[in-house]
Amino acid sequence: MEEELNDEVGTLLDQLQAVSIKAEKVKEERDPLKKEDLEDFVIQRGGALVEDALDMVATMRDFIVSAPNAEDVGAYADLIKATSTALEALNRLTVTDKKSATSIKLKEMDIASRKELQQTDNTQRILATREEIFKMLVDKAKPLEAELIENKPIN
Length: 155
Hints:
This protein is an all-alpha fold.
């Protein structure tokens, strides 16, 4: 009996040592995040977070089905809520990105159509100088038939 107790204590000590070694590995230094890399960071880490959360939801679901407990069910509900919130945040990022791309394309199309309308408007205009316009008017003018009546000053 004493030997079994020593074996169990030894096993527990081995497990605790393994946990402390893993904890030390987690405490690695990270490079500072740059502004240019922020979007990629959010997408990669957010995706990994969602995948891990979905795996945990599946694991907890199996655990809760086998032995339901009020605290476990509450934790399960919180996990599902957190997972859906993370998914929603990633979805908002995607929708915003698509909206931005669509807005840029729409603006480019608007500018192109305005340029085209401006070019057709300019080709329809007649470009002439003042003298050329007067000459055209004089050439097209028809002589008027008029009678000259006595020239009297008006009082």
